[in-house]
Amino acid sequence: MNARRISKTIKIGDVAIGGGAPIVVQSMTKTDTRNAQATIDQIKELQDCGCELVRVAVPDAEAAGAIVDIKKGIRIPLVADIHFDYRLALQSLEAGADGLRLNPGNIGEADKVKKVAMAARERGVPIRIGLNAGSLPKTDNPRLGVADRMVNSALEQIRLLESLDFDLIKVSMKAFDVPTTIEAYQDIADKIPYPLHIGITEAGTPRTGVIRSTVGIGTLLWLGIGDTIRVSLTAHPREEVIAAYEILKSLNLRQRGPVLVSCPTCGRTEADVVKLAEAVEQRLLKIDKPIRVAVMGCVVNGPGEARDADVGIACGKGKGVIFKKGKKIATVEEKDFLEALMKEVEGF
Ligand code: SF4
Protein backbone atom coordinates (compact mmCIF):
# COMPACT_ATOMS: atom_id res chain seq x y z
CA MET A 1 0.00 0.00 0.00
CA ASN A 2 1.31 3.48 -0.83
CA ALA A 3 2.23 5.84 1.99
CA ARG A 4 -0.73 8.03 2.82
CA ARG A 5 -0.84 11.43 1.16
CA ILE A 6 -0.49 13.99 3.93
CA SER A 7 -2.78 16.96 3.45
CA LYS A 8 -3.50 20.00 5.57
CA THR A 9 -5.70 19.25 8.56
CA ILE A 10 -9.13 20.78 8.87
CA LYS A 11 -11.56 20.36 11.74
CA ILE A 12 -15.27 19.87 11.36
CA GLY A 13 -16.58 20.37 14.88
CA ASP A 14 -14.16 18.29 16.93
CA VAL A 15 -13.36 15.82 14.12
CA ALA A 16 -9.97 16.25 12.42
CA ILE A 17 -9.76 15.44 8.73
CA GLY A 18 -6.50 15.01 6.84
CA GLY A 19 -2.94 15.52 8.01
CA GLY A 20 -2.59 11.91 9.08
CA ALA A 21 -5.75 11.84 11.24
CA PRO A 22 -7.69 8.54 11.10
CA ILE A 23 -9.80 8.28 7.96
CA VAL A 24 -13.22 9.60 8.94
CA VAL A 25 -16.43 7.69 8.20
CA GLN A 26 -19.39 9.78 7.21
CA SER A 27 -22.90 9.40 5.90
CA MET A 28 -25.92 11.46 4.94
CA THR A 29 -29.43 11.41 6.38
CA LYS A 30 -32.32 10.39 4.18
CA THR A 31 -35.05 11.98 6.25
CA ASP A 32 -36.74 15.30 5.50
CA THR A 33 -34.38 17.70 7.30
CA ARG A 34 -37.35 19.90 8.19
CA ASN A 35 -38.53 17.04 10.40
CA ALA A 36 -35.93 17.60 13.10
CA GLN A 37 -37.01 14.67 15.29
CA ALA A 38 -36.94 12.11 12.47
CA THR A 39 -33.53 13.44 11.44
CA ILE A 40 -32.20 13.27 15.01
CA ASP A 41 -33.49 9.69 15.32
CA GLN A 42 -31.69 8.65 12.15
CA ILE A 43 -28.47 10.39 13.16
CA LYS A 44 -28.58 8.60 16.51
CA GLU A 45 -28.78 5.28 14.65
CA LEU A 46 -25.74 6.37 12.64
CA GLN A 47 -23.85 7.41 15.76
CA ASP A 48 -24.54 4.00 17.28
CA CYS A 49 -22.86 2.21 14.39
CA GLY A 50 -19.80 4.50 14.42
CA CYS A 51 -20.63 7.31 11.99
CA GLU A 52 -18.33 10.23 12.80
CA LEU A 53 -19.74 13.00 10.63
CA VAL A 54 -23.21 13.47 9.17
CA ARG A 55 -24.50 15.55 6.29
CA VAL A 56 -28.05 16.77 5.90
CA ALA A 57 -29.71 18.20 2.81
CA VAL A 58 -30.76 21.83 3.14
CA PRO A 59 -33.24 22.47 0.33
CA ASP A 60 -34.97 25.46 1.92
CA ALA A 61 -34.99 27.93 4.80
CA GLU A 62 -37.11 25.68 7.01
CA ALA A 63 -34.51 22.91 6.68
CA ALA A 64 -31.72 25.37 7.51
CA GLY A 65 -33.65 26.50 10.59
CA ALA A 66 -34.16 22.89 11.73
CA ILE A 67 -30.39 22.55 12.14
CA VAL A 68 -30.67 24.40 15.47
CA ASP A 69 -32.88 21.65 16.94
CA ILE A 70 -31.06 18.80 15.22
CA LYS A 71 -27.75 19.91 16.69
CA LYS A 72 -29.22 19.78 20.21
CA GLY A 73 -30.12 16.11 19.78
CA ILE A 74 -26.88 14.72 18.30
CA ARG A 75 -23.24 14.40 19.31
CA ILE A 76 -21.41 14.20 15.95
CA PRO A 77 -20.62 17.22 13.76
CA LEU A 78 -23.15 18.19 11.11
CA VAL A 79 -22.49 19.31 7.55
CA ALA A 80 -25.15 21.28 5.66
CA ASP A 81 -25.51 20.36 1.98
CA ILE A 82 -26.37 23.41 -0.09
CA HIS A 83 -27.14 23.89 -3.75
CA PHE A 84 -27.57 27.19 -5.58
CA ASP A 85 -28.87 29.48 -2.81
CA TYR A 86 -26.11 31.18 -0.82
CA ARG A 87 -28.65 32.40 1.74
CA LEU A 88 -29.23 28.80 2.81
CA ALA A 89 -25.50 28.49 3.48
CA LEU A 90 -25.58 31.64 5.63
CA GLN A 91 -28.67 30.42 7.50
CA SER A 92 -27.08 27.00 8.08
CA LEU A 93 -24.00 28.66 9.55
CA GLU A 94 -26.22 30.77 11.80
CA ALA A 95 -28.04 27.62 12.87
CA GLY A 96 -24.77 25.98 13.95
CA ALA A 97 -23.66 23.79 11.02
CA ASP A 98 -20.11 22.55 11.58
CA GLY A 99 -19.36 22.28 7.87
CA LEU A 100 -20.80 23.23 4.50
CA ARG A 101 -20.86 21.21 1.33
CA LEU A 102 -21.45 23.29 -1.71
CA ASN A 103 -20.32 23.94 -5.19
CA PRO A 104 -19.17 27.59 -5.37
CA GLY A 105 -19.69 27.39 -9.14
CA ASN A 106 -23.43 27.02 -8.75
CA ILE A 107 -23.77 29.67 -6.02
CA GLY A 108 -23.50 32.41 -8.61
CA GLU A 109 -21.89 35.83 -8.44
CA ALA A 110 -18.58 36.29 -6.64
CA ASP A 111 -20.04 38.56 -3.95
CA LYS A 112 -22.44 35.77 -2.86
CA VAL A 113 -19.60 33.28 -2.60
CA LYS A 114 -17.63 35.91 -0.72
CA LYS A 115 -20.40 36.38 1.84
CA VAL A 116 -20.49 32.62 2.48
CA ALA A 117 -16.70 32.34 2.68
CA MET A 118 -16.48 35.24 5.14
CA ALA A 119 -19.23 33.89 7.38
CA ALA A 120 -17.64 30.42 7.34
CA ARG A 121 -14.19 31.80 8.10
CA GLU A 122 -15.50 33.84 11.04
CA ARG A 123 -16.81 30.64 12.57
CA GLY A 124 -13.89 28.44 11.54
CA VAL A 125 -16.27 26.28 9.51
CA PRO A 126 -14.80 24.33 6.55
CA ILE A 127 -16.36 24.12 3.12
CA ARG A 128 -16.31 20.99 1.01
CA ILE A 129 -16.18 21.72 -2.67
CA GLY A 130 -18.32 18.86 -3.84
CA LEU A 131 -18.25 18.12 -7.56
CA ASN A 132 -20.27 15.45 -9.27
CA ALA A 133 -19.56 14.26 -12.80
CA GLY A 134 -23.24 14.68 -13.65
CA SER A 135 -23.35 18.42 -12.93
CA LEU A 136 -20.14 19.78 -14.41
CA PRO A 137 -20.17 23.18 -16.09
CA LYS A 138 -20.19 23.12 -19.88
CA THR A 139 -16.80 23.01 -21.54
CA ASP A 140 -15.51 24.59 -24.71
CA ASN A 141 -12.97 21.82 -25.12
CA PRO A 142 -14.73 18.65 -26.28
CA ARG A 143 -11.47 16.70 -26.07
CA LEU A 144 -11.33 16.93 -22.30
CA GLY A 145 -12.48 13.79 -20.52
CA VAL A 146 -14.79 13.81 -17.50
CA ALA A 147 -11.92 13.32 -15.02
CA ASP A 148 -10.01 16.30 -16.46
CA ARG A 149 -13.13 18.42 -16.38
CA MET A 150 -13.79 17.52 -12.75
CA VAL A 151 -10.20 18.39 -11.80
CA ASN A 152 -10.26 21.67 -13.74
CA SER A 153 -13.55 22.68 -12.20
CA ALA A 154 -12.35 21.79 -8.68
CA LEU A 155 -9.14 23.79 -9.17
CA GLU A 156 -11.11 26.77 -10.41
CA GLN A 157 -13.35 26.69 -7.36
CA ILE A 158 -10.44 26.21 -4.98
CA ARG A 159 -8.77 29.28 -6.51
CA LEU A 160 -11.99 31.23 -6.07
CA LEU A 161 -12.11 30.40 -2.33
CA GLU A 162 -8.39 31.03 -1.93
CA SER A 163 -8.78 34.42 -3.58
CA LEU A 164 -11.27 35.20 -0.81
CA ASP A 165 -8.61 34.27 1.74
CA PHE A 166 -10.44 31.05 2.62
CA ASP A 167 -8.49 27.83 3.00
CA LEU A 168 -10.60 25.58 5.26
CA ILE A 169 -11.23 23.48 2.20
CA LYS A 170 -12.02 19.84 1.53
CA VAL A 171 -12.62 18.50 -1.96
CA SER A 172 -14.64 15.70 -3.50
CA MET A 173 -15.01 14.75 -7.15
CA LYS A 174 -17.34 11.84 -7.55
CA ALA A 175 -18.55 9.95 -10.57
CA PHE A 176 -20.57 6.77 -10.98
CA ASP A 177 -17.79 5.47 -13.21
CA VAL A 178 -15.07 4.02 -11.00
CA PRO A 179 -12.04 4.49 -13.31
CA THR A 180 -13.05 8.13 -13.91
CA THR A 181 -13.29 8.77 -10.18
CA ILE A 182 -9.91 7.16 -9.48
CA GLU A 183 -8.27 9.09 -12.31
CA ALA A 184 -9.66 12.43 -11.08
CA TYR A 185 -8.54 11.93 -7.48
CA GLN A 186 -5.11 10.69 -8.53
CA ASP A 187 -4.69 13.75 -10.69
CA ILE A 188 -5.70 16.30 -8.10
CA ALA A 189 -3.94 14.63 -5.17
CA ASP A 190 -0.56 16.15 -6.08
CA LYS A 191 -1.95 19.50 -7.11
CA ILE A 192 -3.61 20.69 -3.90
CA PRO A 193 -2.77 20.58 -0.18
CA TYR A 194 -6.33 20.02 1.01
CA PRO A 195 -7.93 16.87 2.43
CA LEU A 196 -9.96 14.71 0.07
CA HIS A 197 -13.41 13.27 0.67
CA ILE A 198 -13.69 10.15 -1.48
CA GLY A 199 -16.58 8.06 -2.71
CA ILE A 200 -18.43 6.75 -5.73
CA THR A 201 -21.63 8.64 -6.36
CA GLU A 202 -25.02 7.06 -6.97
CA ALA A 203 -23.34 3.69 -6.55
CA GLY A 204 -26.62 1.78 -6.35
CA THR A 205 -28.29 -0.68 -4.01
CA PRO A 206 -26.26 -2.51 -1.35
CA ARG A 207 -25.68 -5.54 -3.60
CA THR A 208 -23.95 -3.65 -6.40
CA GLY A 209 -23.22 -0.33 -4.73
CA VAL A 210 -21.02 -1.82 -2.04
CA ILE A 211 -18.94 -3.53 -4.73
CA ARG A 212 -18.55 -0.38 -6.84
CA SER A 213 -17.73 1.66 -3.76
CA THR A 214 -15.28 -0.89 -2.45
CA VAL A 215 -13.40 -1.06 -5.73
CA GLY A 216 -13.27 2.74 -6.08
CA ILE A 217 -12.66 3.74 -2.47
CA GLY A 218 -10.45 0.72 -1.79
CA THR A 219 -8.22 1.45 -4.79
CA LEU A 220 -7.82 5.09 -3.79
CA LEU A 221 -7.04 4.19 -0.20
CA TRP A 222 -4.49 1.67 -1.43
CA LEU A 223 -2.89 4.52 -3.41
CA GLY A 224 -2.71 6.54 -0.19
CA ILE A 225 -5.52 8.89 -1.22
CA GLY A 226 -8.54 9.77 0.92
CA ASP A 227 -9.09 11.42 4.29
CA THR A 228 -12.79 10.83 4.77
CA ILE A 229 -15.11 8.40 3.02
CA ARG A 230 -18.76 8.05 2.26
CA VAL A 231 -20.27 4.95 0.71
CA SER A 232 -23.39 6.15 -1.16
CA LEU A 233 -26.09 3.50 -1.21
CA THR A 234 -29.76 3.35 -2.07
CA ALA A 235 -30.47 2.02 1.40
CA HIS A 236 -30.70 3.05 5.04
CA PRO A 237 -27.58 5.13 5.76
CA ARG A 238 -26.60 2.63 8.48
CA GLU A 239 -25.61 0.32 5.59
CA GLU A 240 -23.28 3.04 4.30
CA VAL A 241 -21.47 3.28 7.62
CA ILE A 242 -21.17 -0.49 8.01
CA ALA A 243 -19.77 -0.81 4.47
CA ALA A 244 -17.33 2.08 5.04
CA TYR A 245 -15.88 0.41 8.11
CA GLU A 246 -15.60 -2.91 6.32
CA ILE A 247 -13.57 -1.23 3.58
CA LEU A 248 -11.28 0.43 6.13
CA LYS A 249 -10.97 -2.74 8.20
CA SER A 250 -10.12 -4.85 5.20
CA LEU A 251 -7.12 -2.57 4.49
CA ASN A 252 -6.18 -2.46 8.19
CA LEU A 253 -6.71 1.32 8.15
CA ARG A 254 -9.26 1.45 10.97
CA GLN A 255 -10.46 -1.07 13.46
CA ARG A 256 -13.96 -0.88 14.78
CA GLY A 257 -16.02 -3.71 16.11
CA PRO A 258 -15.61 -7.37 15.29
CA VAL A 259 -14.38 -9.05 12.13
CA LEU A 260 -16.43 -12.06 11.09
CA VAL A 261 -14.66 -14.89 9.29
CA SER A 262 -17.10 -17.40 7.84
CA CYS A 263 -16.51 -20.18 5.38
CA PRO A 264 -18.42 -20.26 2.08
CA THR A 265 -19.79 -23.76 2.96
CA CYS A 266 -19.46 -26.71 0.60
CA GLY A 267 -20.44 -30.34 0.21
CA ARG A 268 -18.80 -31.14 3.55
CA THR A 269 -21.08 -28.79 5.50
CA GLU A 270 -23.42 -30.61 7.85
CA ALA A 271 -25.17 -27.70 9.60
CA ASP A 272 -27.01 -24.57 8.48
CA VAL A 273 -23.89 -22.41 8.51
CA VAL A 274 -25.35 -19.69 6.27
CA LYS A 275 -28.16 -19.07 8.75
CA LEU A 276 -25.78 -19.22 11.69
CA ALA A 277 -23.28 -16.79 10.10
CA GLU A 278 -26.09 -14.33 9.28
CA ALA A 279 -27.41 -14.48 12.83
CA VAL A 280 -23.91 -13.99 14.26
CA GLU A 281 -23.32 -11.04 11.92
CA GLN A 282 -26.51 -9.37 13.15
CA ARG A 283 -25.54 -9.84 16.79
CA LEU A 284 -22.00 -8.57 16.17
CA LEU A 285 -23.36 -5.24 14.89
CA LYS A 286 -24.07 -4.30 18.50
CA ILE A 287 -20.54 -5.07 19.68
CA ASP A 288 -17.77 -2.45 19.65
CA LYS A 289 -14.72 -4.44 20.62
CA PRO A 290 -12.26 -5.43 17.90
CA ILE A 291 -12.58 -9.19 18.06
CA ARG A 292 -12.16 -11.83 15.35
CA VAL A 293 -15.00 -14.33 15.24
CA ALA A 294 -15.05 -17.44 13.02
CA VAL A 295 -18.03 -19.49 11.89
CA MET A 296 -16.81 -22.58 10.05
CA GLY A 297 -18.81 -25.31 8.43
CA CYS A 298 -16.98 -28.55 9.12
CA VAL A 299 -14.50 -30.34 11.28
CA VAL A 300 -12.01 -30.78 8.40
CA ASN A 301 -10.87 -27.21 7.70
CA GLY A 302 -13.01 -25.47 10.27
CA PRO A 303 -10.93 -25.98 13.41
CA GLY A 304 -7.87 -24.28 11.90
CA GLU A 305 -9.68 -21.00 11.20
CA ALA A 306 -11.76 -21.25 14.36
CA ARG A 307 -8.57 -21.62 16.39
CA ASP A 308 -6.94 -18.60 14.71
CA ALA A 309 -9.87 -16.39 15.65
CA ASP A 310 -10.43 -14.96 19.12
CA VAL A 311 -13.64 -16.96 19.32
CA GLY A 312 -14.81 -19.52 16.78
CA ILE A 313 -17.03 -22.44 16.08
CA ALA A 314 -16.38 -25.44 13.83
CA CYS A 315 -19.78 -26.97 13.10
CA GLY A 316 -20.13 -30.72 12.64
CA LYS A 317 -23.10 -33.02 12.31
CA GLY A 318 -25.45 -32.14 15.18
CA LYS A 319 -22.54 -30.86 17.28
CA GLY A 320 -20.01 -28.05 17.11
CA VAL A 321 -16.74 -27.25 18.79
CA ILE A 322 -16.21 -23.78 20.31
CA PHE A 323 -12.69 -22.37 20.34
CA LYS A 324 -11.43 -19.42 22.35
CA LYS A 325 -7.94 -17.96 21.93
CA GLY A 326 -6.91 -21.07 20.04
CA LYS A 327 -8.15 -23.56 22.62
CA LYS A 328 -11.08 -25.90 22.36
CA ILE A 329 -13.34 -24.97 25.25
CA ALA A 330 -16.66 -26.74 24.64
CA THR A 331 -18.66 -29.07 22.46
CA VAL A 332 -22.23 -27.88 21.98
CA GLU A 333 -25.47 -29.14 20.45
CA GLU A 334 -26.60 -27.65 17.14
CA LYS A 335 -29.57 -25.86 18.75
CA ASP A 336 -27.11 -24.04 21.03
CA PHE A 337 -24.54 -22.98 18.37
CA LEU A 338 -25.56 -19.30 18.27
CA GLU A 339 -26.02 -18.67 21.98
CA ALA A 340 -22.91 -20.62 22.99
CA LEU A 341 -20.75 -18.73 20.51
CA MET A 342 -22.21 -15.34 21.40
CA LYS A 343 -21.76 -16.00 25.13
CA GLU A 344 -18.01 -16.37 24.52
CA VAL A 345 -17.92 -13.33 22.20
CA GLU A 346 -19.77 -11.12 24.67
CA GLY A 347 -17.58 -12.23 27.56
CA PHE A 348 -14.30 -11.91 25.62
S1 SF4 B 1 -14.54 -25.00 6.24
FE1 SF4 B 1 -15.28 -27.02 5.73
S2 SF4 B 1 -17.43 -26.70 5.21
FE2 SF4 B 1 -16.47 -24.71 5.12
S3 SF4 B 1 -15.91 -24.50 2.97
FE3 SF4 B 1 -14.12 -25.29 4.05
S4 SF4 B 1 -14.25 -27.49 3.79
FE4 SF4 B 1 -16.27 -26.67 3.30
What does this structure look like?
It is built from eleven helices and 15 strands. The longest helix has 18 residues, at 146-163. The mean pLDDT is 93. It is elongated, with a radius of gyration of 23 Å. 40% of the residues lie in helices and 19% in strands. The protein has 348 residues and is of the alpha/beta class. The strands form three sheets. Strands 8-7-6-5-4-3-10-9 form an eight-stranded parallel beta sheet. Strands 11-12-13-14-15 form a five-stranded mixed beta sheet, with helices on both faces. The structure holds iron/sulfur cluster (SF4). The site of iron/sulfur cluster has 12 residues, from loops.
Structural shape: elongated
Q: In this structure, how is the largest beta sheet organized?
A: 8 strands, parallel
Runs with pLDDT <50, length 5+?
Answer: none
Fraction of residues in helix:
25-40%
Gap between N and C termini, in Å?
Answer: 32 Å
| Topology order in helix (H) and strand (E) letters | EEEHEHEHEHEHEHEHEHEHEHEEEH
Tally of strands: 15
Cofactors and ligands = iron/sulfur cluster
Category by helix and strand content: alpha/beta
Mean pLDDT: 93
| Helix count, DSSP H or I runs of 4 or more residues | 11
Q: Strand portion, in percent?
A: 15-25%
Computed over alpha carbons, the radius of gyration is 23 Å
Q: What is the topology, as strand order, of the major beta sheet?
A: 8-7-6-5-4-3-10-9
